[in-house]
Amino acid sequence: MLDELDLSNAELSILLTNDPHIEELNTVHRRKRKPTDVLAFAMEEGSKMPAATPARLLGDVVISVDTAARQAQKRGRPLLDEVVFLLAHGLLHLVGYDHRTDAEERRMNAMTRRLVSAAGGRISAR
User: Fold this and answer.
1) Any idea what the CATH number is for the domain that residue 64 is in?
2) Which of 29, 37, 86, 115 has the highest local Cβ count within 10 Å?
3) Is residue 6 part of a domain?
4) What is the pTM of this model?
């Protein structure tokens, strides 16, 4: 996925956790008292992604395996495919993508599909 974004030298941290932990993070950082599937904490929050630099640290992607498992079952796909999808979605948030408008959502969904495909996945974006 990083190669697909021309960020092969960049780093990110990935935390696979459970619903209680992601709910705590969601409450503290987004003021939403409920679990969610994925959270992204960019190192350069609020700024446009600068040009790639050696060993650039992008930030953290946190995925609830509990929520991912429910979503995978509902969507009829393996848990790993759902986690790969959520990782792509979170990674895109780290590099400045969002889905506040329809146009942004279309752009992000297309790029999510591209990243999942680059990682060898077989799922489509939400």
Assistant:
1) 3.40.390.30
2) 86
3) no
4) 0.88
